[in-house]
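Example S7 (structure tokens).
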């Protein structure tokens, strides 16, 4: 019984220590946030030459269907 209680207490303390360490922003976390900001996938896409070519292909496919 005493050993079980000791093991449980050790596990709880390890989890608590891990929780404190995991909350800190380390260099990897900061670098990841910078990458996320650089990529920023919320920007509208559709102004480049590939978009124009795709629209022309869509128009050609629509005219063939009719």
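Recovered sequence:
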């Amino acid at each position: 019984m005493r050993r079980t209680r000791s093991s449980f207490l050790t596990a709880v303390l390890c989890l608590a220590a891990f929780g404190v360490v995991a909350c800190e922003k380390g260099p990897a976390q900061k670098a990841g946030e910078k990458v996320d900001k650089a990529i920023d996938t919320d920007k509208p896409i559709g102004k480049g030459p590939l978009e124009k070519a795709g629209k022309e292909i869509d128009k050609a496919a629509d005219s063939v269907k009719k």
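Notes on this example. The radius of gyration is 27 Å.
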